[in-house]
Design brief:
The chain has 692 residues and is of the alpha+beta class. Among the domains are: 129-220 and 304-371, Zincin-like (2-Layer Sandwich), CATH 3.30.2010; 405-411 and 429-559, no CATH class; 575-691. Helices cover 61% and strands 7% of the residues. The protein has helices at 3-47, 78-96, 99-123, 128-134, 147-163, 197-202, 205-220, 223-255, 261-311, 314-325, 364-371, 418-423, 430-442, 445-451, 454-465, 470-483, 486-500, 507-518, 523-539, 545-559, 579-593, 597-611, 625-635, 640-654, 662-674, 683-686; strands spanning 60-66, 69-75, 138-139, 170-173, 181-184, 192-196, 402-410, 413-415, 659-661, 687-691. Helix 3 (99-123) packs across helix 8 (223-255), helix 5 packs across helix 13 (430-442) and helix 18 (507-518) packs parallel to helix 20. The longest helix has 51 residues, at 261-311. Mean pLDDT is 80; it is low at 397-407 and 688-692.
Length: 692
């Protein structure tokens, strides 16, 4: 199953979630109606005036001989007997049904559930960082001297750069000594990764890399957004139990301040009603567990398989799972919010529960055997790692002998087809991981340090955007000096020579590495930073498509975080709905990658052939960056099943001559990322691993 099928499957899971949620709400409404009717309806009938019973139906007279006497009695006709029984049944149903009470109960219950869900959804709208903080997470300092935390940061950076997504902020759950982890966010652009302290203490680098591969599968395949929606919806059900708890508490409080018999009856009614709400609320909790188990179990199997595919080393994730089984605490999470977030974790946050069929994760032995069929079911005792202070490198199987010190020599282009390029979306491999590790290792320490904190990260981005031609750079620096504060300008000038020494393919990954630090800016700091980026791009009077894509990818990752934009809503469900913006994008890509108009037209036709539709080729004067940007924004509103053919068309246009250069590959990756389809950097395949 490819990236776009995974995304579409996640959308279908969302529809299934809403259906199950609606069933749960219907059951809760019915239960609360019966509870309210027991208090209100019964009381109303008890107070209603007495009405005489209707006369019993009279049938025929029957005379029977009883000993020496003859007795005459009235015997109802059979039809009259049936009518009486039917009347009694209807009377019983009428006693249990009151349309007025049902209407008000339904409106009140649904309103409370919806408000509870909307409150939680709004609370989580900030993205994954809100979830990490809610669970007691602490952001990892990029300059940490803790060896385990440094290892974690390196693994996350490698995974992010190798998969083509911005590096996510990293959190540690210091109070959790079990082995667990999670990824949270609405999209790869605002994701965070968090691990428990136990994971750092017990997992070696290969095992940690396997766990991170599992979590990056959730990031790439759309599971995170589904998980956040699940938390929001289920909070509406749980809030009924909370209201019941407060009703019981209020009844207990009032009992200590008043002793009258009338108040005593009122307190009893409030207590019983609160107890009923609490019981119904926990019925909702049961439904919540059932929904989470139905939605998340199969996704966990897929994420395990993806981790093996990413690292090509089953022993990594299998070893982590075995250590969970051999640890007394396992993967249990003690935080009070663990229940509502249990489906997001790497391991079952409530492992060992008697209700295993309601568990959010498959049984641990089953997960291990799918990765390691030789597993015998025995878990050896898990012991903490002994840190030696030596650098620890990953074994990227099966790339035997691969080293991470430096990538091999570059080639000008690689042979590639549209299918090859599209197949790389949403995935990564050992070669990309090796290349990402090499990029990290080759980055000058001064640059890496600057990219890891907010002040320096701004200067890093400015230095990356500086034109390498003298005249263009002079104009950019003049504009930057006029608008930028003096300390940041001096930092930009100090970093510019270091950025100039970087290879072309290292510039965009450096911007990705700066994203976590840029997210730490305040809104008042982000506004001028954003303006200065736009100033730099426009100052040299020659905006290249690559400059635009760096700007677009950066703003895509940051604008949502700072509340300047919202994730695009799906509007188009068929390719024909996006033909006009697609024609603009393909025409712009064709002109950018081909030497003349004839070849550009041929590249455009190859792209349109991928989707089996016709659209007019846009003239060069219509392929402005403004038009290109507007077209990409429209394409970003397409459903995953539409984005697949769209990206395939872009890939066919870029690879019209059967090869892809570094510049073309980076351009396609930027366009793909703007559409929400992260693609690994092609440079990882253009530079072979260094052999020992």
């Amino acid at each position: 199953m490819d990236f776009f099928q995974q995304q579409d499957a996640a959308r279908h899971k969302t529809a299934w979630l809403v259906f199950l949620f609606a069933l749960a709400v219907a059951a809760i409404v019915l239960a609360i109606y019966l509870l309210v009717f027991a208090f209100v309806g019964g009381t109303r009938q008890h107070l209603a005036p007495h009405t005489p019973s209707p006369p019993k139906p009279v049938g025929k007279w029957e005379v029977r001989q009883h000993g020496a006497e003859r007795i005459a009695r009235s015997v109802p006709e059979p039809a009259a007997q049936g009518a009486a029984a039917h009347a009694e049944t209807r009377s019983g149903l009428a006693v249990l049904w009151d349309p007025t009470i049902f209407l008000w109960v339904s409106l009140a219950t649904v309103t409370v559930i919806i408000l509870g869900s909307l409150y939680k959804i709004a609370e989580l709208s900030a993205g994954g960082e809100r979830v990490a903080l809610m669970l007691g997470g602490r952001p990892v300092n990029p300059h940490t001297q803790d060896l385990a935390e440094r290892r974690l940061l390196n693994v996350v950076e490698e995974m992010a750069l190798a998969s083509g997504v911005p590096v996510p902020p990293v959190y540690v759950l210091d109070h959790e000594r079990s082995i667990n982890a999670f990824a949270a966010g609405h999209s790869p652009d605002n994701a965070v990764v968090a691990v428990s302290r136990g994971a750092l203490e017990y997992l070696n680098r290969d095992e940690l890399q396997g766990v991170m591969g599992h979590e990056f599968s959730h990031i790439l395949n759309g599971d995170m957004r589904l998980n956040l929606r699940l938390i929001g919806l289920l909070n509406g059900i749980l809030i009924l139990a909370i209201l019941g708890y407060y009703a019981i508490r209020a009844a207990g409080t009032s009992s200590s301040s008043s002793r009258s018999s009338g108040n005593g009856r009122g307190r009893l009614v409030a207590f019983l009603f609160g107890l009923g709400l609490l019981t119904i609320g926990y019925i909702g909790v049961f439904f919540g567990k059932l929904i989470k188990a139905a939605v998340s179990r199969q996704r966990e199997y897929l994420a395990d398989a993806s981790a093996v595919q990413f690292t090509r080393y089953p022993g990594g994730i299998a070893g982590a799972l075995k250590k969970i089984g051999g640890l007394g605490l396992g993967s249990r999470i003690k935080d009070a919010h663990a229940e509502e977030c249990s489906h997001m974790f790497f391991g079952d946050a409530f492992a060992g529960s008697l209700l295993n069929w309601l568990a959010t994760h498959p049984p641990l032995p089953d997960r291990i055997r799918r990765i390691d069929p030789t597993f015998d079911g025995n878990f050896p005792e898990t012991k903490p790692l002994v840190e030696t202070g030596e650098a620890e490198t990953s074994r990227l199987h099966p790339v035997a002998g691969a080293a991470v010190e430096s990538p091999g020599p570059a080639v000008e282009a690689i042979a590639a087809t549209s299918a090859d390029l599209v197949g790389r979306i949403g995935t990564l491999g050992p070669q990309q991981l090796t290349y990402a590790a090499a990029l990290i290792g080759q980055t000058p320490p001064r640059l890496a340090e600057a990219a890891s904190e907010p002040f320096g990260a701004r200067a890093v981005v400015f230095a990356v955007l500086l034109n390498r031609e003298e005249e263009g750079r002079r104009r950019q620096l003049a504009a930057l000096e006029a608008s930028l504060d003096a300390p940041c300008y001096r930092e930009t000038m100090a970093l510019a020579p270091l950025v100039d020494q970087l290879s072309e393919e290292a510039r965009l990954p450096l911007v990705d590495r700066a994203c976590p630090a840029l997210k730490q800016l305040s809104p008042s700091q982000y506004a001028p930073f954003r303006e200065n980026v736009e100033t730099l791009v426009k100052a040299d009077a020659k905006i290249t498509l690559l400059e635009y894509t760096i700007q677009a990818m950066l703003f895509r990752a940051l604008d949502v975080h700072f509340g300047r934009a919202k994730p695009p809503r799906i509007r188009y469900y068929a390719v024909r709905g996006v033909l006009k913006p697609l024609a603009t994008v393909l025409s712009t890509l064709a002109y950018a990658g081909q030497e003349n108009d004839e070849r550009a037209r041929r590249a455009f036709d190859l792209g349109m052939k991928q989707i089996g539709c016709d659209a007019p080729f846009v003239a060069k004067d219509g392929c402005t960056l403004a038009a290109f940007d507007a077209a990409l924004r429209e394409l970003a509103r397409a459903a995953p099943k539409v984005k697949g053919p769209v990206v395939a068309a872009c890939a066919a246009c870029v690879a019209a001559d059967g090869t892809v250069t570094l510049r073309e590959g980076e351009l396609l990756r930027a366009v793909s990322s703007t559409l929400g389809c992260p693609m690994p950097p092609i440079a990882g395949e253009m530079r072979g691993p260094k052999r020992q």
